[in-house]
């Protein structure tokens, strides 16, 4: 690890000022950043520690029935917060399906939003990677790319965003509150992460020095609470990133879908909100046929970026499963294996 | 000599006592090698090659040395001289080492320099600052590479081709034939404790805190390498955080010792997790082709097991994957053969159940495929082809309770009534459920060991042997054997171990440590008791005087006349009257060549697995595992069950999780960490049971103990794979099983 300066700002303004200096990186729990520093992928000149800032660690109820969540709230605390579990159960389920208990106890909201891709060539400084070293190439092409993107990828980068949390946030229209050198602004989470295009090194809309201070979940999204699920496929039962995942929410009125939310994970450089699929579901009777048609729309543009054609079909199926589970109703308690296909399936799989 | 009878019941051995070092372990007080910090110690960090073949053209030594805290950079230019070339293999079980002998790179992860600094952080950054420039050459790292050859030997000196019977006739006689190819990946040991060393020189004397699975071999090789006397090398290795075959002496540890020599100060060198994927051996990938023939009644007529595997470009270790086919099933014609490739990887080596783990997976799936072809229940099919004698050699087994393993395992699992057809069972929510079986097997080996026992005037005992506790419970099991051999309660025996200055306990490997070192302890204890008995029986003041032909037995700190319980004499009294401080016994153990020539010696077992598979998503989970194993006498059922559990979990890992992801172009392992190199987590292992099946073996060794450390993997991986077929109808032949294989 390189030698670096460590600063501990006392106010958000100080943090923003320190963060705007070239070579600075904000340090939250460090579960991603420190790992990347140890393997030489991140070599910041200065760590700006967010752990002692006031005002970033509370969860407030908003007048519209939504929640405002401080950027330093730990993943585990958020997932077990009574209002989150009640109003945004798929968000809690997504959080609890990620990483391990130890990591969730440490990891923060802000850090989760900004965690880097798990592309192994990005993590290996001896490999060519346009995201890590712009213009150097992409060794994932033609390499071990079984789990890479099938949507929104470009010739310069085929990596996926690894966050589970963000998939649920994208589905339920979360908003990111930012404090920066130019003042305060907000970005809908759906627009927060960028597709790679020719600049895969620019992963989000954040400018240098811009600090995430909070995340807002709108009250409107709480209307999906009775029918909200997150489902995740992984290569072991727990403690693994998603092969593919889906967050789904339905509002069902008089036996018809009045509104739908669907987002996919593990398929693209950003959490993939499937608006066409959502639109197609409105007015339909909840059921396998409608869900299959919607999932087909969600993956309509998908194409393999390597040895990963299977992910397209798998993503369709995980979308269908998330919708089936959402339609069956949010369980009274989060299952012991959150987001797992091995969690109870109300009504079963019908053959 | 007087006859000393052996106590069979009411002894320490056989009891499920808890680990004597358990408290140290759970409180973090157990001192592993890297926990040592001698005064003046410096930290050494390896710079590892990022290419897999070529040469190091330049290193920025100046940049590294300029980094604050860096003391020295060891490169081929200044590495202290060695008396023996690192490629010398004259010491048994030696692999060629990379000790900065030149600028060549032979695999990714090979050490190319060592940075020594005042802190670990400074050494780490110093290593990064070396910024090597390479001249890289094209690499081959897959089993598709050209240049296959027939190796001279496989495993440890076994022939690359073996057969009995007439293969052509066997295949011709078959009414059903199958041929299938199975692939297993490169795997790494991933012991929790990384390889490391804390080395301190004093002239030509060398003091080492270092995990090792074999003191004497390590001393021998180090002595030869450094040209120093072996007696001057003191190694402490009280605990290993797992070894699994990767912790005989390794190159990185020797680099730590060289670094200490270079700077003239104690040095600690510990591998990072990522550095464990290269220079400390691995399990080689295999591509195995099985050809089976069977008659209409389900009797095998032919079994051909061909293995394609790989070794490194510079050294030889051929995974002996076909070994299981020599012993498991009766067939009039059996043949095994090998071909190997040289790849630009580190040299493979012994990894828990070397050969049997990958080989029994292929064999067990092939047997399942043949049972299916014959329309038979897979357990009935295995019983139909039960080997009454070892098929390849024709020798009788020293003992073989495999039938009982099948029966007890099947009963406990509830195998009876299993539908023959796949996709026949579902859980309450509609997921597919399948049951599979696999036979487990592992040879019962013996190495060489010595032990020393003493009975002291206060009536207590002392037993010494330089054994290795790799987490398997050696501190406990050996103390039990020691106590039994001396007729003392375990609390009355001081057991010394884990150091090189004690009698050699041989190596902890081949599942033979308990058998070998345990037999030596038993012999040492028996000799001490015999000496004590001689004293008593010759002493007119002893109640045992004159019992010569009847004999005595040692129990509870006393010698007791075999035919008359009331005539007894305590150890303390005997020594007191003789005016002696103690009596000593010495014991040796090694393979009984005569017994080995007459009998085939193996542990056996039967593993039953249940898997549940999501039919749409291909996600699967092992939901039940029952293993029943027969491995001779059981010294401590609690520890043995733990070995079986660990082995079975490894079997699940083998079938479903473990795989080194090699980049075919660079030869680098792309998942060299435990986040991405998957092993099972708790949630992957819901219910697991191990049954200890009674087995008495009068031939394997004095104790009647066979090995339990490795067998659990064998059988299990096959059982899981076969259960997947039964659940889904999909026959997976490539491991670990990928989600896309089961999407349906
Ligand atoms: C082994 C392992 C397995 C994992 N598995 C999963 C998984 O299955 N699913 C999943 O979703 N995640 C998984 N994770 C990732 C984990 O969720 C992230 O590491 C974690 O959320 C990062 O949070 P942190 O607080 O530690 O961030 P840090 O590591 O401290 O920071 C991450 C990045 O965010 C920036 N940053 C942090 N806070 C702010 C802020 N307020 N404003 C601006 N920038 C900020 C930092 O500068 C840095 O660039 C896993 C991680 C590991 C190590
Ligand atoms: S996919 Fe993207 S992150 Fe991965 S190597 Fe290519 S450019 Fe880098």
Please outline the helices and strands.
The complex is a heterodimer of chains A (351) and B (744).
Chain A (H helix, E strand, L loop, with lengths): L4 E3 L4 H9 L3 E4 L5 H6 L7 E4 L9 E3 L5 E4 L4 H5 L2 H6 L1 H8 L4 H6 L2 H5 L6 H4 L41 H7 L3 E6 L2 E6 H4 L18 E7 L10 E6 L10 E10 L2 E10 L6 E2 L1 H7 L6 H11 L11 H19 L23
Parallel strand pairs in A: 1-3, 2-3
Antiparallel strand pairs in A: 4-5, 5-8, 6-7, 6-8, 9-10, 10-11, 11-12
Helix pairs in contact in A: 5-9, 11-12, 12-13
Chain B lengths: L3 E2 L16 H5 L15 E7 L5 E5 L2 H6 L3 E5 L29 E2 L5 E7 L2 H10 L3 E4 L24 E4 L2 H7 L2 E9 L11 E7 L2 E5 L5 H12 L6 E4 L14 H13 L3 E4 L15 E9 L5 E13 L11 H4 L6 E10 L12 H19 L3 H7 L17 H12 L11 E2 L5 E12 L5 E8 L4 E4 L9 H13 L6 E4 L16 H25 L14 E4 L2 E4 L2 E7 H8 L3 E8 L3 H6 L3 E12 L6 E11 L6 H20 L31 E5 L23 H13 L16
Parallel strand pairs in B: 1-22, 2-13, 11-12, 15-16, 20-21, 27-28
Antiparallel strand pairs in B: 2-6, 3-5, 3-7, 4-6, 8-16, 9-14, 10-11, 10-13, 14-15, 17-18, 18-26, 19-20, 19-25, 22-23, 23-24, 26-27
The complex binds flavin-adenine dinucleotide and iron/sulfur cluster (SF4).
What does this protein look like?
The complex is a heterodimer of chains A (351) and B (744). Chain A has 351 residues and is of the alpha+beta class. Chain A has helices at 12-20, 33-38, 75-79, 82-87, 89-96, 101-106, 109-113, 120-123, 165-171, 189-192, 275-281, 288-298, 310-328, and strands at 5-7, 24-27, 46-49, 59-61, 67-70, 175-180, 183-188, 211-217, 228-233, 244-253, 256-265, 272-273. In chain A, the strands form three sheets. In chain A, strands 4-5-8-6-7 form a five-stranded antiparallel β-sheet. In chain A, strands 9-10-11-12 form a four-stranded antiparallel β-sheet, sandwiched between helices. In chain A, strand 2 (24-27), helix 2 (33-38) and strand 3 form a beta-alpha-beta unit. In chain A, helix 11 packs antiparallel against helix 12 (288-298) and helix 12 (288-298) crosses helix 13 (310-328). The radius of gyration of chain A is 20 Å and the shape is globular. The mean pLDDT of chain A is 97. Chain B has a seven-stranded mixed β-sheet, sandwiched between helices. Chain B has a five-stranded mixed β-sheet with strand order 8-16-15-14-9, with helices on both faces. In chain B, helix 8 runs parallel beside helix 16 (716-728), helix 11 (474-486) runs parallel beside helix 12 and helix 15 (637-656) packs across helix 16. The mean pLDDT of chain B is 96. The longest helix of chain B has 25 residues, at 513-537. Chain B is an alpha+beta fold. The interface between A and B is large, with 42 and 41 residues. The structure holds flavin-adenine dinucleotide and iron/sulfur cluster. Chain A: GO terms for molecular function: FAD binding; oxidoreductase activity.
